[in-house]
Each structure stands twice: as C-alpha cells, then as structure tokens.
Amino acid sequence: MSDEDDEIILKDLDDTQLVEQMQDDLYDGLADEVVEGTQILLDRGWDANAVLTDALVEGMRIVGVDFRDGILFVPEVLQCASAMKGGMSLLRPILANTENSAGLGTYVIGTVKGDIHDIGKNLVGMMLEGAGFEVIDLGINNPVENYLEAIDKHQPAILGMSALLTTTMPYMGVVIEELDKRGILKELPVMVGGAPVNQEFSDAINAHTYGRDAAMTAELAKAIVGKNR
Amino acid sequence: MTNTSHKTLIIACGALAKEILFLKKMLGDAGRSIDLQCLPADYHNTPRKIIPGLEKVIAERGCHYDRILIGYGDCGTGGHLDAFVAKNNLELLPGAHCYAFFAGLDEFDALMEEELGSFFLTDYLVKFFDTLIIKGMGVDKHPDLKDIYFANYKRVVYLAQTEDLELQKQAKAAAQTLELDYEYKFIGYGMLADAMDTLALREPAYV
C-alpha cells in the first residue's frame, strides 16, 4: 500500500479521533499537522482552552513521560515543542481575549547566574503557559537581583529557577536564602528544576517543590495554586 | 596464583582513549600497570547511560585490579557520578567535563568568566564534531535545532591537546557551521596527565 493511501485526512476524523491524532502528530513533531488539527477543532466550535488542554498539553505530557523514561531524547522533544508552539500560535490570541486565560496567576521563571542553558526552562515555560499561568521569563544568567526585581514588579504566584550544571545549581540556594532573609520565602513558593537537580537537592536548599520535568512542573504548579484538575 | 597487585584499571569515556593511551606510553614501564577500558563516547549526549556502563565493566573486570580510576568529569550526570564513585571507593577526574580537566580548573573558570557563552571542543570533539554534535544532537535532520541549542553561545573555544593544523582547520569550520566566533588555545593534557602520573607513582589502594 502506498503512503498516499495511508494518509490521514484530519478533517474526516471525529473529535475524539482528531484529538488522539493531534497528540500522535505532536509526538512525531509534525507542526503543520498540529496547526491544522488545532484550526479544525476551533472551526468545530471547541473552546480554545479545551483544545490546549486536551490536545496539546496532554500530548506534551506524554512526550514528557517518554523523555523521562529514555524513550525520547532532546532533539525529538524539541521537535514536539515546536509542534506545540505551532498550535499555541493559533490559540494564544484567542486565550488572551478570554476571561479564563492566565487564570492561575503569574509564574516568574529564569535560569540562574552563570548558566546559559534554557532549553528545559523554555519547555517548562511553554507547559506552564498551556496550564494557564502568565509566564514571565527572565531568560538566562540571572543574579538574585533579577529575581527580586521581577518578584517586586509582577507579584508572582510562584517563582521557578532552572540550572543545567552542577556548578551553577547551588546558586538556587543563594537566591532562596536571600528570599528568606527578606521574608519573601514564606509567602512565595519556589520551584526548582534542571537536569542535575533532584529531590534531595531541592530539600537541602529549602525549595518548596522540585519539578522533575516540564509536564510534571506544570502539574505541580497547578497544585500549588490549588487548581488541579 | 597470579599476582595482580599494583594494577590499575581506567574506565573512561571513549573520547579520552587516544589521549590516555598516549599518556600511558609516555609513562614507560610505570604505565604498564595501567589498563584502559572505554565506554562509548556518545554517552556524552546520553549521560544517564554512563553509570550503568561503569557498573557493568566493574562487575566484569573490577576484581582483577586494586585501583580503578573513572575517566570522566561529572559529564552531565548531575552529581550522580560523584556519589557512585564515593560509594564504590573509586577515583574520579576533577571538573565538570573533559575540557575542564584538560584546561585545568582555574584556566577553565577564567575562560568561562571571560565569556559565559563558550562552547568547548577538544581534539576528539573536533574530529567527531559531525558525528557527536551535528548528527548526535539531531541537527542534520532538523537544522532549526542549531539555533535552539546554540542561541546563547558566542564562541567556540578549541582547547587543543595536540598542535595539529588540520584539526585547527576543522575546528574553525565547526565554529562557522555554528555561526560562532572562534578561538584556539593549545593546552595539552592538563590534569589528565597529572592524574596518570599520580596513578603510576602511587602505592596500591585496594578497591
């Protein structure tokens, strides 16, 4: 049978099949197909939040699990993320005009001082946005002053810090200590994550929560603000 | 019974094989008590495979040696390699990556201080740039990944173990591929040579 015969026509699928197909397409990093599926669901009258949650975020959750289990690697995950971004580019303007967008509050996130790695952080940011947070991304190489300034300016519900290196992750502890000194820590949950970070380290530096991967971080963040599905 | 005392096994990243064999040869008679077993160099991109790989080699060969040196830095294991080494009474090279112990930790810190966005190459990484970086990180299939991976880098720093004009040419080409500035520093074998010297001179420490 030729590939042409196997081609799936997205608009011919019913809603359930289409959502499953979009999750598969997202898993395979097929951005054009994910965008097309997103548009079809919107045309069928789906709420933008439902498209985001059921098709895109759920698709990325599956990707996150397989990344954690060593089935998918960074290049594949980034292709998946690009596909999700494609779908989100259609949804973002709609969500921005609806009441329930960013309903979970603001999440300030940044890579710590001395570290320029941001791939994981960007994935987390995307999943948080998908979950309903307004994400303020401070970028890379952030000294404690940047976090303090952003907290003051944006009054976030949660602060997230990321590091890829064993040499830079201790700086998360420096930031947390400073927040504690200023009396901010008791009011502001701090999440930490990144390849070398683990639960023991998170506990040792007095972080509120350790986010193992992007999907889990979004779930835990929702739990922190009391909005678990 | 065969006398196996004073024998050292180095279990190293394949990216260090040539350098370790060269240093072993330089040690002459003292180097004969050192054996080398390498794990695949592409574990650089999949660090979670390093510790299981080490465990397998130690289970198979460890009993024949009175000392084992792990020829890795932290290499992306997030400190797990440190814990593994401590738990099993092994020895580990210092630093986060091979380029750190080749350069020496102070020199490496200075390079990072000078430009945080430095992407380091060694002789091995230059030779296998296409295999490990371009193909290994999926850039050959998805060229757009290059910008995602390297957006925050400013320069390629080739920390050379040997003075090789052909490798310098390749390193410069690699920098051009990544659209980054290029710098060259000849640093030799640095702390890897120190570690090998120490191994050859020391009394055995039973593992």
List the helices and strands and how they pair.
The complex is a heterodimer of chains A (229) and B (207).
Chain A: H1 3-6, H2 15-27, H3 31-43, H4 48-68, H5 74-96, E1 106-111, H6 119-131, E2 134-137, H7 144-154, E3 158-162, H8 170-181, E4 190-193, H9 199-204, E5 209-210, H10 214-224
Parallel strand pairs in A: 1-2, 1-3, 3-4, 4-5
Helix pairs in contact in A: 2-3, 2-4, 3-4, 3-5, 4-5, 5-6, 6-10
Chain B: E1 8-13, H1 17-26, E2 34-39, H2 50-61, E3 67-71, H3 80-87, E4 91-92, H4 98-103, H5 105-114, E5 118-121, H6 123-127, H7 129-135, H8 145-150, E6 155-160, H9 165-178, E7 181-186, H10 190-201
Parallel strand pairs in B: 1-2, 1-3, 3-4, 5-6, 6-7
First and last CA, distance of chain B: 19 Å
Category from helices, strands and their pairing of chain B: alpha/beta
- Listing every helix as H and every strand as E from the N terminus to the C terminus, the arrangement of chain B reads EHEHEHEHHEHHHEHEH
The strand line-up of the biggest sheet of chain A is 2-1-3-4-5
SS-based structural class of chain A? Answer: alpha/beta
At CATH level 2, the architecture of the largest domain in chain B is 3-Layer(aba) Sandwich
CATH first level of the largest domain in chain B: Alpha Beta
The main sheet of chain A comes to: 5 strands, parallel
Shape verdict of chain A: elongated
Strand content of chain B: 15-25%
Number of strands of chain B: 7
Counted beta strands of chain A: 5
Low-confidence stretches of chain A: none
Element-by-element helix/strand order of chain A: HHHHHEHEHEHEHEH
Provide the CATH topology of the largest domain in chain B. Answer: Rossmann fold
Into how many domains do the coordinates of chain B divide?
2
Strand content of chain A: 5-15%
Rg over alpha carbons of chain A: 19 Å
Helical run tally of chain A? 10
pLDDT average of chain B, as an integer? 89
Please estimate the helix content of chain B. 40-55%
